[in-house]
Design goal:
Shape: globular
Distance between the termini: 57 Å
Number of domains: 3
Number of helices: 17
CATH superfamily of the largest domain: HUPs
Low-confidence stretches: 399-406
Radius of gyration: 25 Å
Mean pLDDT: 88
RNA sequence: GGCGGGUUGGCGGAGAGGUUACGCAGCGGAUUGCAAAUCCGUGAAGACCGGUUCGAUUCCGGUACCCGCCUCCA
């Protein structure tokens, strides 16, 4: 059997993966807080751990892997979104508004992640369905001396867990010296973090031994992973930004609540996403969602390809250039594998993925399969990496994909239609009609180019009104 | 301030202590309504300074620079 090797953040080493029970491999990945569309950065862990999930299924069998990814549907950002709508005059109750918002966001999330080719996890628990387990866990922590109630709050006593800070390589004393911690009157120690907090009448709340309130961030993952995967499970994943404090706190809670378990044995973290060399942020104006890209007719598999071309442990740069390269490569591969029977995944490729998920190297191997004419193997390999079969999609047959020019994005639909038609006419060797169509498009002030993917570049004479008139 | 990641050819991006990464672009050629697609061939690298070694881009140390987390945003 293939030995999978994974980098464990806890030990800072790449280790042989040795599941507790090979017939029941268990993985937990931190999912989204459902208050808005997922941005591109949110999608990276989804794709990274989807590849791991596929690899685990390939090695241990599809029925022997349990993948849990939560929806955090209780959070102050969600409350704020609902309160804003209520303030704007919506007559419905806060609870109804919250429910509507979280349900809608979960639908969006599914739509967007499905488009990236991510398999649905085995279980997708919602935090609000596990409030009882959270309360039970908090009670246990208090009984064990690891937490204390004060003024309607319950706090975790960080000093009661000697390994606190081990995952992220921090010491409690150093962090306090850094003085960047919230000092609150109800805290024994500045590093103590909230397990439960009181809710006033304007906030959602649940009855608890400490009064009506709601859980703090962190406890939901500890409670749900315990309920669904047990005291000890194999892999816990998420973005590197979650390493501290989220995962550190999860470990502290779970280790103290279940001292006989190991909690998660392997901790995996993906590095961050950047856009054109910079962190994605609203202030830089380079912030966008997965849906924004899909709406620009960028296929989900192209986004996936760009993600996989960088190892998960390195920052990944989303650039328009890489998007174009990925489009061209996938287009070639889909043409090669269209209608070809699916063969076997080469052992060498599985070994490459098993070596700490080296997706970037695996892509070079796919290039080699393509160069050698091994199209059946290429097709199977693409499937393992989560790409659709050529027969399931059709953009590669005629074109699609636009130049990334920002000022064309809002005309994506009409341009896509026109470019597709142009390509189809050329494919049909109807050059008279193709050239005539080209002339009418270029009359709008666009320059067409028959590249790997037909594209349109705006000139200084670009007139959007004329373009829309071509509809 | 604390912790962590990175620096490879024009661009993106890997593996391996000694042998071609790979892709894109470029260049030469074939083919082709096409500015395309396809096919054949081809040049080009390892931030800086030391150390270990018969030999390092690959191991070790230092320097410089870049980036992220520690704070609501993944």
């Amino acid at each position: 059997m293939t030995t999978i090797r994974l980098r464990n953040t806890r030990t800072r080493k790449v280790e042989d993966f040795d599941p507790i029970d090979p017939t029941k491999v268990r993985m937990y990945v931190c999912g989204p807080t459902v208050y808005d569309r997922a941005h591109l950065g949110n999608a990276r862990p989804v794709v990274v751990f989807d590849v791991l999930y596929r690899l685990l299924r390939h090695v241990y069998g599809p029925d022997h892997v349990t993948y849990v990814r939560n929806f955090t549907d209780v959070d102050d950002k969600i409350n704020a979104a609902a309160q804003a709508r209520k303030a704007a005059g919506d007559p419905r109750s806060l609870e109804d508004l919250i429910r509507e918002r979280t349900e809608e966001t979960i639908r969006w999330y599914h739509d967007d992640m499905d488009a990236l080719g991510a398999l649905r996890p085995t279980v997708e628990p919602r935090a609000t369905d596990y409030i009882g387990q959270m309360i039970g866990m908090i009670e246990g922590l208090i009984a064990g001396g690891h937490a204390y109630a004060k003024d309607g709050h319950v706090l975790f006593r960080v000093r009661s867990y000697k390994d606190y800070g081990k995952l992220s390589g921090r010491s409690v004393d150093d962090m306090i010296a850094g003085a960047r911690v919230e000092v609150a009157p109800f805290k024994e120690d500045p590093m103590d973090f909230v397990l439960w907090k009181p809710s006033d009448a304007d906030l959602p709340g649940w009855d608890s031994p400490w009064g009506r309130g709601r859980p703090g961030w962190h406890i939901e993952c500890s409670a749900m992973s315990h309920e669904l995967l047990g005291e000890s499970f194999d892999i816990h994943g998420g973005g590197i930004d979650l390493q501290f404090p989220h995962h550190e706190n999860e470990i502290a809670q779970s280790a103290c609540a279940h001292p006989h378990g190991d909690f998660a044995r392997v901790w995996m973290h993906n590095e961050m996403l950047m856009v054109e060399g910079k962190k994605m942020s609203k202030s830089l104006g380079n912030f966008f969602t997965v849906r924004d890209l899909l709406d620009q007719r960028i296929p989900g598999e192209v986004i996936r390809f760009v993600f996989l071309s960088t190892h998960y442990s390195k920052p990944m740069d989303w650039t328009d250039r890489r998007r174009q390269d990925a489009t061209a490569t996938l287009k070639t591969w889909f043409r090669m594998t269209d209608g070809v029977p699916k063969g076997e995944v080469p052992v060498g490729l599985v070994d490459i993925l098993a070596n700490d998920l080296n997706t970037a190297f695996s892509i070079s191997k796919l290039h080699e399969l393509a160069n050698e004419g091994e199209y059946s193997a290429l097709k199977a390999s693409m499937s393992l990496l989560g790409f659709p079969d050529a027969e399931q999609i059709d953009w590669f047959r005629h074109g699609a994909g636009l130049s990334g020019a920002e000022n064309l994005a809002e005309h994506a639909e009409i341009l896509h239609e026109l470019l597709t038609k142009w390509q189809d006419l050329r494919n049909a060797r109807d050059y008279a009609a193709a050239d005539s169509l080209k002339q009418s498009i270029e009359a709008c002030g666009l320059k067409l180019s028959a590249g790997t993917v037909p594209s349109a570049e705006p000139t200084e004479d670009f007139d959007p009104a004329k373009l829309e008139a071509l509809k």
